[in-house]
Design a protein that fits this description.
This protein starts with 8 loop residues before the first helix and ends with a strand. The chain is about 40% helix and about 25% strand. Helix 1 packs across helix 2 and helix 2 packs across helix 3. The chain has a 6-stranded mixed sheet, sandwiched between helices. The protein has a 3-stranded antiparallel sheet with strand order 10-7-11. It contains 10 helices and 13 strands. It is an alpha/beta fold. The chain is globular, with a radius of gyration of 22 Å. The chain has 3 domains: about 80 residues, Winged helix-like DNA-binding domain superfamily/Winged helix DNA-binding domain (Arc Repressor Mutant, subunit A, Orthogonal Bundle); about 120 residues, D-Maltodextrin-Binding Protein, domain 2; about 90 residues, Periplasmic binding protein-like II (D-Maltodextrin-Binding Protein, domain 2). Strand 1 and strand 2 form a beta hairpin.
Length: about 300
């Protein structure tokens, strides 16, 4: 009986890192190896699966259909490997971690991340809060939260000292699919209630471009805002992060101004020094990086900063 082939975890990790960070050279830098060593690993992987995984794309390489399929499994296998090691090595880890998230991450991304963390560290008590950027940053600064993922300021404003910018995301116009605005009438806006950085920024850009507008819907919650936009009540201003599949992004043109970018930052309280906080901080950074890199590989409007 032929024995099954066991995929090499180191090789799978190299594949994941190469695809998430822009190629074999970047993977070699992160893994402390030569580019030729990474290339040999990828050749070994192709021999193991019996399929070509890469194709030429200009001066770089891209994944074949088989490569795309394997990459999805590789991410899951590497994540499961790391979760297993964390669970065994950190079984005695306990304590409390207080962490904050923007609404954009709460529905799709947050459950998977917290579930993974809880399985690895079941004795750690997690207190999660969902809120707006300024509120979350203030709570970290005052010691009410240990960690927070929060949007920084839109544009070229310097980041807050001590914050790590994990990504720069485009700020975009979001509309229901098939939206056709009339340039001769005021633009209907569905917005979060004030104070909201995205709301203020969008209105200022419209005013600066001389485009008339009117507010047709406001809500304190992002889920309510998405529902209103899907129902056709108006367009809104946000990042593509957590954007429902039922909505679309409007490209800037002569009628809609460009909106720039906004950093997504990780804030950590100076007093938050514990193995539990360290571990959750690492999981948040790794998981967010994988999610954004996956979106980038699908040519979505996300820009990851390594």
């Amino acid at each position: 009986m032929m024995l099954p082939t066991n995929l090499d975890m180191d090789v799978l990790r190299a594949l994941v890192i190469a695809m998430e960070h822009g190629g074999f050279a970047r993977a070699a830098e992160r893994l402390g190896r030569t580019q030729s060593a990474i290339s040999l690993q990828m050749k070994k992987l192709e021999e193991q699966v019996g399929q070509p995984l890469f194709r030429k794309a200009g001066r770089t390489v891209a994944l074949t259909d088989a490569g795309d399929l394997l990459l999805g499994y590789a991410r899951r296998l590497v994540a499961l490997n790391d979760e297993a090691l964390s669970a065994v090595r950190g079984r005695a880890m306990d304590g409390t971690v207080r962490v904050g998230f923007p609404q954009d991450l709460a529905e799709r991304w947050l459950p998977a991340v917290l579930g993974s963390f809880h399985r690895a560290h079941p004795r750690i008590h997690v207190e999660a809060q969902v809120g707006r950027g300024r509120e979350l940053r203030e709570r970290v600064a005052h010691g009410a939260l240990d960690l927070a993922l929060a949007f920084g300021e839109i544009g070229d404003t310097p980041g807050i000292p001590g914050a790590a910018a994990l990504a720069h995301l485009p700020v975009v116009w979001v509309a229901p699919k098939g939206f056709r605005g009339d340039p001769e009438t005021s633009l209907p806006l569905a917005l979060l209630d004030a104070p909201c950085m995205f709301r203020q920024h969008g209105i200022e850009r419209l005013d600066g471009g001389g485009r008339p507008w009117r507010i047709t819907f406001t809500s304190p919650s992002l889920s309510g805002l998405w529902a209103a936009v899907e129902a056709g009540l108006g367009v809104t201003v946000r990042t593509p992060l957590g954007l429902p599949d039922t909505l679309s992004i409007l490209e800037p043109d002569g009628r809609l101004p460009a909106l720039g970018t906004v950093p997504l930052e990780l804030h950590r309280a100076p007093s938050a020094a514990s193995p539990a906080v360290d571990r959750l901080c690492g999981i948040l950074t790794e998981s967010l990086g994988a999610m954004l890199a996956g979106a980038r590989s699908k040519k979505q409007h996300l820009i990851f900063v390594a």
